[in-house]
Specification:
The complex is a heterodimer of chains A (257) and B (446). By secondary structure, chain A is an alpha+beta fold. Helix content of chain A is 38%, strand content 23%. Chain A contains five helices and ten strands, in the order H-H-H-H-E-E-E-E-E-E-E-E-E-E-H. In chain A, the strands form two sheets. Chain A has a five-stranded mixed β-sheet. In chain A, strands 4-10-9-6-7 form a five-stranded mixed β-sheet. In chain A, strand 1 and strand 2 form a beta hairpin. Chain A starts with a helix and ends in an 11-residue tail after the last helix. By secondary structure, chain B is mainly α. Chain B has helices spanning 15-52, 67-73, 87-107, 131-137, 152-156, 158-161, 200-209, 224-253, 262-280, 296-311, 317-321, 342-345, 378-387, 410-422, 431-444; strands at residues 108-109, 112-113. Chain B starts with 14 loop residues before the first helix and ends with a helix. Classes of the chains: A alpha+beta (257), B mainly alpha (446). The A-B interface holds A 132-134, 136, 147-149, 153, 155-157, 218-219, 222, 224-226, 245-251, 254, 257 and B 156, 159, 171, 191, 201, 209-210, 212, 215, 217-218, 220-221, 224, 284, 286-287, 289-290, 376-379, 382, 414, 421-422, 425.
Chain lengths: 257, 446
């Protein structure tokens, strides 16, 4: 029976690692990175994945070898007792500790870039207020300032300019939410009572997912929005149209449907 | 569970203690097979759930009868409906059965909605309800095999608004304000005259923008055909609910005989409601145009005028919204003067048991929040002031041929609109004055 179990356990790393090699070609991998900073995050992800992958393969390989070699049915070697190895324990304590310390230092720059080095003198592009269960958006109006009478209000349908630094002021009206833009490698909790800056630079135009990544209540699954990355010209045009629609004093011409 | 007692050689245990210990240990061993049987049963049950799935295919939700209106508003008592009661009670019970049968014949059920051909959409007369759209929104979530039904209403709306559209779904009780009860046919935020139904575009707008400040979220990203299907289904539920109420009034309040014939139901109870919905499209309030170019100076003057009107006695704004617009004008009012939506006002200590949700007070809007439930366009706010908000104490303030006693002329409403829109940015306590009177000086020169 020992042979059967050792083969079975060997299947775990073999199939597991095979899955990782197969997944990207089948489209089950990280979404396309459309941000300038995203490569740092993807690099860290891949680096840690390879590191843990090697350790995983080695551990599973050792497990297989022990179960195979010392199968009670075939093993004729006499039993040996050991009270442990001091050297071995020192090694397997120091090695992971050093690795963790290395990762902690290695990732600091990426963390600072996405969470700490807030761009200076950059006015917010949009204020996003999360609430159960939608994203309320507020853009500065023609005067370029937030919090004035001509602000442009919208919901769920976020438009942003491509190729330039974008600053989002993230707020929450009720509970914890999480602004998740997977294609822009942005994920930030929205905390009631706080205004949290989120910044990034999108590369290409396109339409991307905007979802809530923090279980925020029974309607969490409904909190799905859309991020449309546009060229500056199109973005300005959209803002202008929104401003006109919002200042309406007469019913607009009926939309063609 | 008592732990096994160790019986060691040479311990000072008495014979009875040893007996007890042995019995306990043997009981434990008796328990083992039972536990393993129970756990294997659990595993099998879990596996079966996995294979079969938590199927809800056997549950057929039904429209529930509007007993609250009958009990609370038409003076009936629950004992009047006992099947085994006296002759009157049996008669009442028969009336309920008649209502249920008539409604089912006219509207079908939530899985399979139906409409008489006479009230189905007629493109020439621009009247009626589109049964094809209604069917898209009806049924269980996921829809039927032929792709006809998609269950949109149950996917997006039913948990708050209820399968029947009674505004009493499972999550309704947690919400303030309560979700709309479509059966009453009253809708707050619309472009039409106060007593008219909303237009299709009004409902589409509400679905797309949501109602900020309430639990109604935005469904902006749903495709247009789904939005239209949902709007049509809301109309269908509303028409059904109002037909039911009209029928109940005749049966229970007026104690009339209703002929069990399609024509009787259709012409007297159903058709008028459908006509009301069709008429709404012609009853949209179109405010007089404003001059296109409003300079900053114009705006400041308009805001100042609006502020004066806001405090005017006949405009009645401060009565509820308060002199600062914080919505605190009616705070501390005695019980009899508290504010309620119409559908909460009807709830009295005597009939409260018949309602689906507890009574809830209405808070006048805090105008300084910058949250406008019915839309933030000047046009929306104009209509809120002009038509008021039906179902609430917010009165129709606009003066026109239909409301000649209205206190506000259109131009005055526009001034008020500007003032209301500027309120979130106006200092409530004018701290600037306070500072200039020496507060900052004190900080600088202690």
């Amino acid at each position: 029976m020992g042979k059967f179990w050792s083969i079975l356990f060997l299947m775990v790393p073999v199939l597991g690692i095979a899955l990782f090699f197969w997944a990207p070609s089948a489209g089950y991998w990280l979404p396309r990175d459309n941000s300038v900073h995203g490569y740092q995050i993807d690099h860290l992800f891949n680096f840690i994945l390879v590191l843990t992958g090697v350790v995983f393969a080695a551990t599973e390989g050792a497990l297989f070898w022990f179960v195979w070699r010392y199968d009670a049915a075939t093993n004729r070697d006499p039993i040996k007792f050991t009270h442990g190895s001091h050297n071995l324990e020192v090694i397997w304590t120091i090695l992971p500790a050093a690795t963790l310390l290395f990762i902690a230092i290695y990732q600091m720059n990426a963390w600072a870039d996405v969470k700490m080095r807030v761009p200076k003198n950059l006015p917010p592009t949009v204020e996003v207020t999360a609430r159960q269960f939608e994203w309320r958006l507020r853009y500065p109006g023609p005067d370029g300032k937030l919090g004035t009478m001509d602000d442009i209000h919208h919901v769920n349908d976020m438009h942003l300019p491509a190729g330039e630094e974008v600053l989002i002021e993230l707020k929450s009206m009720d509970v914890l939410h999480d602004l998740f833009l997977p294609h822009l490698r942005v994920k930030q909790d929205a905390v009631p009572g706080m205004s949290i800056p989120v910044w990034f630079r999108a590369k290409d135009v396109g339409t991307f997912d905007l979802v809530c990544a923090e279980l925020c209540g029974w309607g969490h699954y409904k909190m799905k929005g859309r991020a449309t990355i546009q060229s500056r010209a199109e973005y300005d045009k959209w803002l202008e149209e929104m401003a006109v629609a919002q200042a309406a004093t007469q019913e607009p011409e009926k939309e063609e449907e | 569970m008592i732990k096994a007692i160790a019986v060691e050689e040479g311990s000072n245990l008495t014979t009875s203690q040893i007996e007890l210990a042995k019995r306990l240990m043997s009981e434990r061993s008796f328990h083992r097979p039972f536990i393993s049987r129970a756990s294997s049963a659990l595993v099998i049950a879990a596996l079966m759930t996995f294979v079969v799935g938590c199927s809800t295919e056997n549950s057929h939700p039904e429209f529930r009868l509007n007993l609250q209106d009958i009990l609370a508003k038409m003076g009936q008592k629950p004992e009047d409906f006992q099947r085994s009661g006296d002759e009157d009670a049996r008669k009442n019970y028969a009336k309920l059965q008649f209502m249920a049968t008539a409604l089912h014949a006219a509207f079908g059920d939530p899985d399979d909605p139906y409409l008489f051909p006479e009230v189905q959409w007629n493109a020439e007369e621009k009247k009626g309800l589109d049964l094809r759209k209604i069917k898209l929104a009806a049924g269980p979530f996921g829809g039927s095999a032929n792709g006809e039904q998609r269950g949109l209403f149950r996917q997006h709306c039913a948990h708050c608004h209820g399968v029947t559209g009674d505004g009493a779904g499972p999550t309704a009780a947690f919400l303030d304000p309560y979700p709309r009860d479509y059966r009453q046919g009253a809708f707050k935020f619309k472009s039409t005259e106060r007593t008219a139904k909303p237009t299709t575009d009004d409902l589409k707008r509400i679905l797309r923008d949501g109602i900020p400040g309430t639990a109604m979220p935005s469904f902006l990203l749903l495709p247009n055909d789904e939005i239209e299907a949902l709007v049509e289904y809301v109309k269908y539920l509303s028409v059904r609910g109002q037909t039911e109420i009209n029928l109940a009034i005749d049966l229970f309040s007026n104690d009339e005989e209703v002929e069990p014939k399609k024509e009787a139901i259709l012409e007297t109870y159903l058709q008028p409601v459908v006509d009301d919905w069709a008429a709404a499209e012609e009853l949209v309030v179109r405010p007089p145009a404003r001059s296109e170019s409003q300079t900053e100076q114009d705006l400041r003057e308009s805001i100042a005028k609006g502020r004066e009107i806001f405090f005017r006695k006949d405009a009645q704004c401060t009565k509820c919204h308060g002199p600062t617009g914080l919505g605190d004008g009616n705070d501390g009012a005695p019980e009899k003067d508290k504010l309620f939506d119409d559908w909460n006002k009807e709830k009295t200590p005597e009939n409260i048991a018949y309602w689906l949700l507890p009574k809830k007070e209405l808070r006048p809007r805090d105008l300084r929040m910058g949250i406008f439930r019915g839309g933030r366009r000047p046009l929306d706010i104009f209509r809120r002031i002009h038509q008021g908000i039906p179902g609430t104490p917010m009165p129709a303030g606009g003066r026109d041929e239909k409301n000649p006693t209205g206190p506000l002329k259109p131009e005055e409403i526009w001034n008020l609109v500007d003032y209301v829109r500027s309120l979130p940015f106006e200092d409530a306590s004018e701290p600037a004055q306070f500072e200039s009177h020496g507060a900052t000086a004190m900080v600088e020169h202690p």
